Amino acid sequence: RYIVFNAFYTFLIQSEEERRWKWAAENLVSLAGYCKATGEDCFSLRGSYAGALGPAQFLPSSVQKFGRDGNGDGRVNPFDFDDALFSAANFLLEHGWREDRIQALGRYYGSANGYPRAILAYAEALGWPRP
Fold first, then answer.
1. Neighbours of 71 (CB within 10 A)
2. What is the pTM assigned to this prediction?
3. Is 120 exposed, middle or buried (0-12, 13-18, 19+ CB in 10 A)?
4. Cα separations (Å) of 32 from 5, 10, 107?
């Protein structure tokens, strides 16, 4: 529900740490690229307070790096469920899902502690993966 451009711009101008303002600047540039490529209005896109977009909650830089077209329409739209699902799967594969699921989920969620383990335990309780 937050305007994504404003979230990154605020991080950019208020961050004293170089690492934080570089992160905000990278995402602003990626957001601008996405808007130019799709014709979206950068000043109307809404996401999380931290600028994450769509159901997969990808940052614009993650959409740029890991986004995939899941519905075959020729574009990556982080707000489209099929694209978000394919993009999340691609992110996890690129971050070692086949070798270490906890670490791949940790990269996705920002930490390998707690939540990734709970997700895998829940999936196992539901009988996943199924043959």
1. 14
2. 0.87
3. middle
4. 9, 16, 24
